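for ur thesis appendix - E1 ubiquitin-activating enzyme. copy paste whatever u need, i formatted it the way the template wanted (i think)
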Amino acid sequence: MRCLRFLRRGLLSMLPTNKRAAGTDDDRPTDPKRPKVAQNGSTNGVVVPEIDEDLHSRQLAVYGRETMRRLFASHVLVSGLNGLGAEIAKNLALAGVKSVTLHDVKNVEMWDLSANFFLSENDIGKNRAAACVSKLQELNNAVLVSALTEELTTDHLSKFQAVVFTDIGLDKAYEFDDYCHSHCPPISFIKAEVCGLFGTVFCDFGPEFTVLDVDGEDPHTGIIASISNDNPALVSCVDDERLEFQDGDFVVFSEVHGMAELNDGKPRKVKNARPFSFCIEEDTTKYDMYIKGGIVTQIKEPKILRFKSLRDAMRDPGDFLLSDFSKFERSPVLHLAFQALDKFKKEYGRYPAPGCEQDAQSFLKCAADINEALTDHKLDTIDEKLFRHFASGSRAVLNPMAAMFGGIVGQEVVKACSGKFHPLYQFFYFDSVESLPTYPLDSEDIKPSNSRYDAQISVFGSKLQKKLEEANTFVVGSGALGCEFLKNLALMGVSCSPKGKLTITDDDVIEKSNLSRQFLFRDWNIRQAKSTVAAAAASAINPNLCIDALQNRACPDTENVFHDTFWEGLDVVINALDNVNARMYMDMRCLYFQKALLESGTLGAKCNTQMFFYFDSVESLPTYPLDSEDIKPSNSRYDAQISVFGSKLQKKLEEANTFVVGSGALGCEFLKNLALMGVSCSPKGKLTITDDDVIEKSNLSRQFLFRDWNIRQAKSTVAAAAASAINPNLCIDALQNRACPDTENVFHDTFWEGLDVVINALDNVNARMYMDMRCLYFQKALLESGTLGAKCNTQMVIPHLTENYGASKDPPEKQAPMCTVHSFPTHIDHCLTWARSEFEGLLEKTPGEVNSFLSNPAQYAAAMRKAGDAQARELLERVSECLGKERCSLFEDCIRWARLKFEDYFSNRVKQLTFTFPEDAATSTGAPFWSAPKRFPRPLQFSVSDPSHIHFIMSASILRAESFGIAIPDWAKNTSKLADAVSEVAVPQFEPKKGVSIVTDEKATSLSSASVDDVSVIDDLLAKLEECAKRLPPGFQMKPIQFEKDDDTNFHMDLISGFANMRARNYSIPEVDKLKAKFIAGRIIPAIATSTAMATGLVCLELYKVIAGEHPIEDYRNTFANLALPLFSMAEPVPPKVMKHQDMSWTVWDRWSIKGNLTVAELLQWFSDKGLTAYSISCGTSLLYNNMFARHKERLNKKVVDVAREVAKVDVPEYRKHLDLVAACEDDDGNDIDIPLVSVYFR
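the 3d part is after this line
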């Protein structure tokens, strides 16, 4: 997975390895007889509602059923409904806790609109908690949402399993934490705070907390090759895959032949772990000799953590976990800064005023007094510049910071309620000062103006806010990341002026499974286009958002939509994609157009941390100084942002032309963020969002801009409306175009040329690669991100500063050999891969081939004869059987077909295999054929009393009837009546045949062996087909059934799981339930709302830098985070590779442009003037000129564009101003020189 690129095993060395020091009471596995430690989320005595597996399928892939049940029984309090509190509450509602109580005694101010997407100007003066209840309830009707508006006391806390505070002083926090810490059972206490570009989280889950699953990963397994009779015993495993065991792990053995003493289920400790072997601390000298077989499986043990109370932890914070080694000394500074802020607020009853010198001095004195009183952990010096930044923006809750911390804290609440994943132990500090503009902020620039962006302006200044609003942004993808990005962009004010524009594109539609993490979507959006719904939702967040929602996939096929003009106009590109190919494409495009690409992603969980964690990102601040005028509040919704960044940056944000591609989970979050930030929220800004997908029910659990009533509506349209509701000033266009070469007439050159930034919110690699290519071409910033489970990553692609997305690639996923999948499976994954292949062959491909034959028999026959190979023969055999002996006219025929298929797949084929290769068979070298990892299979005996057998017949016969258009009788789903009907089927006796060829070569690419008789057999089969066609009723057609995993009523997964489990039973492989089968066969990407929120928050912090401009590469950050552990790893982006020739140098971002309608000769002379000889010139896949061919000299005096039209048949559309050429050149010494793409501007 792409987002794991910079998580390597070496990174684990940063983490503590001493389990006792980490808080475990014991390094032995828990005694199975020992009672489990009670968890706050215990479901004992609580009736837990059934899990809606369609809605929560992606979340179930991360957490599992048991964790979801604990969540469904949990009651949570969120106190303080500023932007951070709203983000946390949103993530908890999407996660599906039993109840969320919102507490606040403060009323809504204009300042709050900069980060709280639930609020609008109509809510000003209302209680913050009460104003959020109804909109939060919309996210998940299964969660009980209520408001508490009175002063909070300890008496209120006892009903909750976890309490979260986002706006509380230290004294009150000490009181509440002491109560929670000593309560029986303990109440998990979390204190979180965001102050401008600084944030903190503290967790206290009680004196003793049991982590049931530290990392969420499946237990590691190995297939045993040998076990020695030694002390200690050496266990060797087959070398198909490296072992993942580490010293100290515990494992159990099963299926061992010979040394049966190890099959007792007793955990044994691993030592001397190696890639393909390990030792166990056991004397096996007196055990029986190992013969064959055996599986070794890791035992995942619970872990006990002992938390300090807040009072004790503040006095003794202990060690700090570093994530950014460029800020090695920053951690204790932030610990002091937050204490100084609390002291200032107690003394003055308010936050320091932005840009106020007197307040800055008072704040510095508070810090100095606290530091002087310390006996341990005292700072030698106080970083006055950093503390001034802290004080100036301390009141501001910035949306990207709120989104990021909302993801972190939301995940910590899930851990507290379920025991799933390792908690944050115990402090986390973060800052992003590097997001500030590179120019100075004066007091006027950060002065509040009673704008919804005042909080943001107080940090970044009004100039950057203006840039954000006028940004031309492209967000690719509107799934989980896309939803978060849209939310963030809307809140930030990105593309929220008439000069700005945000384009989001996604060709997907909303599914039910999206709803648990793509928070812009609702039940009623299912089957609607993702980008449309997400864009509408983002517009609801910020009505000023200028957004276009497209339903185009960003790929080469849509380059007529996302054309050169489109790319050239972009300021930044944000990826919200979920696959590497799409990311690589977007990277390539950003590289070509030299546009910044903000990349992110999410994934699962892998290791553990248990130290204090401090992080800062001061480089987010402007590169210029901020004066008091620039950060002065103006009663604007952006005052919080202006207080940090200044009004200049705020203006830039509002005038940004932004393109968001995708409006799923990432897209929804992005739109929300951009609307709150004020991006593209002035008449000069525009936000275009595109997504060709519609909303499904599965989207609602994580694509938070969508609701039940949006199901089947266009994602981009709904998301744009929702973002506009968050910020009515958002200038947003919602398109339903896929960003790909086919839509380059929509996203044309003019569109691209006007963009300020592109934000990808995509879910596949191909789309990302396309967007990368376009951003590269038009030299636009691309902001890329992605998620997978609890993991996320972000990548910034900045023109001329960083490498593009496609510059590095992950290794391809390992594929099981064909012979393993079809004849020698060893794992349930092999069985499910085979099952899906058979499903598609029987119910989609074969009916499709039947229809192809019937529509034009002569043409079909000619194509088969031309192919004349084994594959064509096999295909014709299937079609012939389907229209001949296996043709069904009645439902009883379908039952007979299903019963005979059962016999063929799970009995006859196994009998043939074991006849050809008996249990004592040997290879050509004399070694046993059935040695590890091969498993010797046993045929199944069909039984009507076996429910799994009958269910297989039911699902197979129903789908067979559907493909033949046969009515399905009511009794078809009655197991007893179906069993009676199956009993009537006569099953022929099977006799194995000699001489049957079964492929055993792991390198084979086909199971069909070629034959000299193929041509004659094909002729016979075609003749037979003609006879079959004569017996068909007029107009006969079959219905190909395309696999759909997200409909639990269509029997697709029933049949696939039945196929896989029967095959697993043949080979004694552990079976799986339908849900697990759905995850594997449906290739469901695990997804949760928290990692999506964090990814988009991180990307939007980078967006400040992109819009502000002038930031060096050292200020930008790529991030990998794993909320399960938690683990945060941030690094400076990699610069692009520089190539040189004579006095020239260039990178992949460069494109050589030539003005004028040149001839081929003039072009060759242009190269010659640079000291280069162009010996070959091509356009696309066509060769325009090569000096080796004499006839090419005739083209020298022709215009290059005319040669392209004549030779390459290039039809240059009117919107295209230039022709792109690839030239192969050499220097005077005959050395090849790789030069950039050459663009001839002939118009």
